[in-house]
Amino acid sequence: MNSSLLSLAIWVPIIGALPLLALGSERRELVRWLALAVAIAGFAVTLPLYLDFDRQFVGMQFVEMAPWIPRFNVQYFLGVDGISVLFILLNAFVTILVVLAGWEVIQEKVAQYMAAFLIMSGLMNGIFAALDAMLFYVFFEASLIPMYIIIGVWGGPSRVYAAFKFFLYTLLGSLLMLIALFYLFLQAGGSFNLLEWHQLRLTMTPQILIFVAFLIAFAVKVPMWPVHTWLPDAHVEAPTGGSVVLAAIMLKLGAYGFIRFSLPILPDASHYLAPMMIALSLIAVVYIGFVALVQADMKKLIAYSSISHMGFVTLGFFIFNQIGVEGALVQMISHGFVSAAMFLCVGVMYDRMHSRQIADYGGVVNKMPKFAAFFMLFAMANAGLPATSGFVGEFMVILGAVKHNFWVGFAAATTLILGAAYTLWMYKRVVFGAVGNDHVAELTDIGWREFLVLALLAAAVLAMGIYPFPFTDIMHASVDNLLKHVAMSKL
Amino acid sequence: MKTLYLIIPFAPLVGAIVAGLFGKAIGRAGAHWVTILGVTASFVCSVLVMQDVLTGNTFNGSLYTWMEAGGLKLEIGFLVDRLTAIMMIVVTFVSLMVHIYTIGYMAEDPGYQRFFSYISLFTFSMLMLVMANNFLQLFFGWEAVGLVSYLLIGFWYTRPTAIYANLKAFLVNRVGDFGFLMGIGLIAAYAGSLDYATVFAKGGELATISEAVTGWPLITAVCIGLFIGAMGKSAQFPLHVWLPDSMEGPTPISALIHAATMVTAGIFMVSRMSPLFELSDTALSFVIVIGAITALFMALIAIVQTDIKRVVAYSTLSQLGYMTAALGASAYSAAIFHLMTHAFFKAVLFLGAGSVIIAMHHEQDMRRMGGLRKYMPITYLTVLIGAIANAGLPPFAGFFSKDSIIEAVQLAHIPGAAFAYYALLAGVFVGGFYSFRLVFFAFHGEERFRHAGGHHGDHGAHGHGHHAEPHESPKVVTVPLILLAIPAILAGFLIGPMLFGGYFGEAIQIAPRHASIAHMAEEFHGPWAMVLHGLMAPPFWLALAGAATAWFLYIKRPELPTVIKAKFATLAMILEEKYGFDRFNDWFFAGGARMVGRGLWKAGDEVLIDGVAVNGSAKAVGRFAGVVRLLQSGHIYQYAFSMILGLFVLMTLWLNRS
């Protein structure tokens, strides 16, 4: 199977961003429409990836391979399986929303803002499509730069601190990964080919060392407890669009790393260290759930909620059963929709009130009934209510966890109570009640563009909650293959 | 036939969507017509389905595959048998009555369309719950009714008490759902399916194994987990705390959701799971004890309440306790029978209370009522009927169902049954007392409403046209009351077929060693014989004694209650404080969780992780910050973009040079 669909998914947004930069920020209206056109085109080229995907076929599809740096045997090697394909679609979809969401809010350096998101979108597609470790690494690192800039330029008052914390944390992590990649390159006889690495025999000690190196890189991204403290800061300072991409896509990169690198390359270390991974995941679910409860800043609350939800993802991976792993993947996609929606909702209020403090609100529903209805739906999805996407992944992971070990399932299921508590308590204080103050009294309900963005996400959240079959169906062959692979020792 | 099954849940859903999304366009009348039409269609179809299942047909089929993973096939589908059919009739009938009643009750409310949308959405969710043929959909309906209950308790969202109550209701229910989900998780792990029929078929096998990690007997763990879910939804001790507060919602939903249907979901669920519960005597003992505690101790609280709705609310808790005790005694059919009769007479009591509340201009305190029977004869009569049925006096509906429960518990042999029996008997006296106390307090005696009015109104928004004579409510209110009062009198006569005529057939399974219902069937010689027999049994005399006490204290010597209360001040305080549960939960769980959260955040995140581990680099950040400030002023971002693109180009060129 040969096609250039993946290259298109990567390069359409990146190349499309160039004319924006050339136009500059003088002609804002034109820039916005052009950015939207590029984003839609970027989404359109990913659709065939889903539609033409062969669900029976085990292995990589839409493969592209060309020599890139022959001297080090680095290949421009792309391909997707049932695990990665959905993230490319999710990424392209979210990019459209981000462009729409920044339409009126961003008045400064519009062209650069839009271009940053488009370029980042392309780079992240590259991460999900890369099958050459060096190519992966380049995309992985490069995608940091636009996000760093987005936070640093369009962020809040402490944006410099947040951007730097974000950058240092993630850069530190990935340096160790680079060393691990070189080691594997040498072990594999001078190859960066990931599929070959999956077959590579390794003894236990190097497996564990490489696992730890990868763990540090990926755990920072997820983020897992205790390397999560950069995320609340980054979210608080990032502009709404930045938060959306950060939560919806960027957090998934770490989790994706586990399933593309750690599990298949290091199955024995993965099994050996699984209890630790499960423990860290459960700490994320429970500990962070409690921390989210007491946040006074809405964005921080949602950021902590994200960490807690991502705990389900890493938990699902390391219980090594199909329903757990697929549940984790479903949770990643669902979290993409739900966290994006939650941050957009906070953004809608922030644009009007210029405050994220829960205490500054109260009784928003009186002035913004349409908005309150959307926010209710997303809050319920965040609390994992059935018929929303938020339920599907959590439910699957909990079922898988109970199967793995009753107490693991028990600890994970506390999210049922904690998740509802922090989400709905916030909702109560912000949305319900009598009009809280004069600023709230002046609020106006969402306009049609905001309505459109939230409605698209609402449709996605409900569709995935009511009929998740298509989402899991596409994963089966790949997850099945992965689990078979992980079950085989490489010692 | 399948179309019929689809119409039943989805007609109300369509109504809810239309009224909810296009409420403004279709107007108030449009909203009530479209939802009432949907529920009527649903009711008519339910009657047709009932006729069909009475001929012996059942249906078990799936609608679509929701998901498939790891060998677990999860489907959305319907199981329609006699247990489902009776639930469908109860739900759609009470819902229809409440829809009509709402036209009058909510006439002046600005959220009219929204209200109709919610109650139709509730009807859909409840129907999905009872029609489920698998645990996934059961859980789906379970949470969906919880959601609508949340939305409706907080319907008047500007009132602090309402939005406190709805959050509390949701969270307490989530505690129950936690247990429920654990039960479902164990079923999925050990039975490899969530389909009822498959799981029930494997019941015997599950009863022989222990849970791998904990070593618990599996079937007991599963049943207790599921029952914890029922404790949340059906407000059983100690998860009962949310139900009294849910009275903050408009009265029609108190009748529909918090009396007749949603709170009985737990009773229905355990009955549905009878093939599993029958395998674990430990679980049944747990059930019977929890039920008995709820039945007696919640009834006691009702006697000190002065808010008319709260009396009915505690009465509901107590009656749910009776149903639960019946489940523990393996008298599932008696539990469902009481569920049905209770749905009618409790809906009457709630809607009657609502009618009083409208007449009193949204006054709910009985101390400001009295003598109302003169002004509202229809409401008085229907509430009286409801009270007699609730007290369990023959030959009204409540007598048959409550008496069967008490007898079944008496015949049960599992541990805890003896305690349950005496608790339930004592509860009968208390039930007789509080039921008639309500009637006498509100409708008889001195007319106290002429004094200054209170402000604890049901509607926040709406007026104080006080001091006018109270008057009977309009027809949209009284007609549903009458229509519900009829089955509250007569439904008891279905006892023959329902309990002893094998009505439930295969839907309910009872192990031979738990066969108290079968014993009762041998003694049963028709409803009138049961009435005669009942006149000589203790429950009747206890209920009568309760009624007489109420008469003595509230009509004969109305000055006495104050005296008694002063004399037993401690006891009265314990009851008024509701045994201190609310205070404890607020302090321990709500306060404790916040304390833990703050502790972890400040000590864990800020001091340990950021302070010790990250601080070093944070200082470095300070030093680097000067460099970074360039970002804000200069054009560095543009260079950065070029950098990314340049990166690829440079690497390609440089590394490839020969």
Structural class determined from secondary elements of chain A: mainly alpha
As residue ranges, the low-confidence spans of chain B are: 453-466, 630-636
The number of helical segments of chain B is: 29
Shape of chain B: globular
Distance separating the two termini of chain B: 77 Å
> What's the alpha carbon Rg of chain B, rounded to whole Å?
28 Å
Average pLDDT taken over every residue of chain B: 85
Q: Summarize the amount of helix of chain B as a percent range.
A: over 70%
End-to-end distance of chain A: 33 Å
Q: Strand count, sense and closure of the main sheet of chain A?
A: 2 strands, antiparallel
Helix content of chain A: over 70%
The main sheet of chain B orders its strands as 1-2
Shape of chain A: globular
Plain-language structure description:
The complex is a heterodimer of chains A (491) and B (658). Chain A is mainly alpha-helical and 491 residues long. Chain A has helices spanning 5-23, 28-44, 47-51, 85-101, 110-129, 133-142, 144-154, 159-187, 194-199, 204-221, 230-237, 240-265, 267-293, 298-317, 322-353, 364-367, 369-382, 389-404, 406-413, 415-430, 438-441, 448-466, 469-473, 476-487; strands at residues 61-69, 74-80. The longest helix of chain A has 32 residues, at 322-353. The radius of gyration of chain A is 21 Å and the shape is globular. Chain B is mainly α and 658 residues long. Chain B is 72% helix and 3% strand. Chain B has helices at residues 2-21, 23-54, 82-105, 112-131, 135-153, 160-191, 196-201, 203-206, 218-233, 242-245, 251-260, 265-272, 274-277, 281-302, 308-328, 332-359, 377-391, 397-411, 417-443, 475-490, 495-500, 516-523, 527-534, 538-556, 560-567, 569-576, 581-628, 630-633, 636-656; strands spanning 59-69, 72-80. A two-stranded antiparallel sheet of chain B has the order 1-2. Chain B is globular, with a radius of gyration of 28 Å. The termini of chain B are far apart. Residues 453-466 and 630-636 of chain B have low confidence and may be disordered. The chains are: A mainly alpha (491), B mainly alpha (658). At the A-B interface, helix 1, helix 5, helix 7, helix 8 and helix 13 of A face strand 1, helix 5, helix 6, helix 27 and helix 29 of B.
